[in-house]
Specification:
It is globular, with a radius of gyration of 12 Å. It has helices at 10-15, 35-44; strands at 3-4, 51-52. The chain is an alpha+beta fold and 58 residues long.
């Protein structure tokens, strides 16, 4: 299974149990690339059947 997510979605991966931190205190929240970019990317690669997260927090 392969995942597609933007930097800003890292918190969601933590909540889903998918986050693995290899370097303590390395995590930094990043706003890029953003929901619009991610939704466009998801639409363009839909044939790859990747697991994605919502582009907008629900």
């Amino acid at each position: 299974m392969k995942y597609l997510l933007g930097h800003y979605q890292q918190d969601w991966t933590k909540k889903a149990g998918l986050w693995k931190e290899n370097i303590s205190d390395y995590y930094t929240g990043k706003p890029d690339p953003g929901p619009v970019f991610m939704q466009n990317l998801i639409n363009k690669v839909s044939d790859l059947e990747l697991v994605t997260f919502p582009t907008v927090r629900q």
